[in-house]
Amino acid sequence: MEGTNPVNKKLAAALSGGAVLVLALAGCSSDDNSDKLNSWAKEVCDAVQPQAKKIEAANAAIQKETSDNSTPEDVQKTDAQAFQDMSEAYKAIGAAVTKAGAPDVDNGETKQKNAVKELNSISASYASLQQQVEKLDTKDQAKFADGLKDIAAQLDKLSTSGSDALKTLEEGDVGKAMAKQESCKSASASPSAANG
């Protein structure tokens, strides 16, 4: 019954890369900024924190599923739920960045639009992975493992390609303002970010 485990481990490794992406929204240095930018950062950080927790919980569920000798049915159920949670979390972060408006920096509007577009696209990717997991054949272990392998490869791509617009959004003053927010600090101080 060991067939799915190595593949699911690969899935878990790929996933934890994706979680770091949200935590990248939390900057690391601090400086004095305009009040306007600080209040923007606070709004975004406060909204990101619960979503970052949701993404971490989804990661943890998949990690746990990989350490048990789980049946394909269990793996499928856990992974599908985790992908759904992640999809919703990224969508919520995109909505929060939209609601906060453009940060008070040069090209703030462009940076904001690009980040929202990327967050929504990541959300859609996780939704599509959820559908793929749900369609896998749990009766045939070899087929199931192959299907998971495909999903792990897509996840890998997702976690590496996903953070460019977010990085751009939080360059310079935006990152500094976010770093000062308690809610961003606690989001970035999580264990999964420390390992990344």
Structure description:
This protein is an all-alpha fold and 196 residues long. The protein has 9 helices and no strands. Helix 1 runs antiparallel to helix 2 and helix 2 (35-67) runs antiparallel to helix 3. 46% of the residues are buried.
Order of helices and strands: HHHHHHHHH
Helix content: over 70%
What Rg do the Cα atoms give? 18 Å
Count of helical segments? 9
Structural class, judged by helices and strands? Answer: mainly alpha
Overall morphology: elongated
Report the uncertain regions: 26-32, 189-196
Beta-strand fraction estimate: under 5%
Number of strands: 0
**Biggest sheet descriptor:** none
Summarize this structure as a short list of keywords or feature phrases.
single chain, mainly alpha, 196 residues
What's a concise summary of this model?
The protein is mostly helical and 196 residues long. The protein contains nine helices and no strands. Residues 26-32 and 189-196 have low confidence and may be disordered.
Write the layout of secondary structure elements.
Elements (H helix, E strand, L loop, with lengths): L4 H19 L11 H33 L4 H29 L7 H28 L5 H21 L2 H6 L2 H8 L2 H7 L2 H5 L1
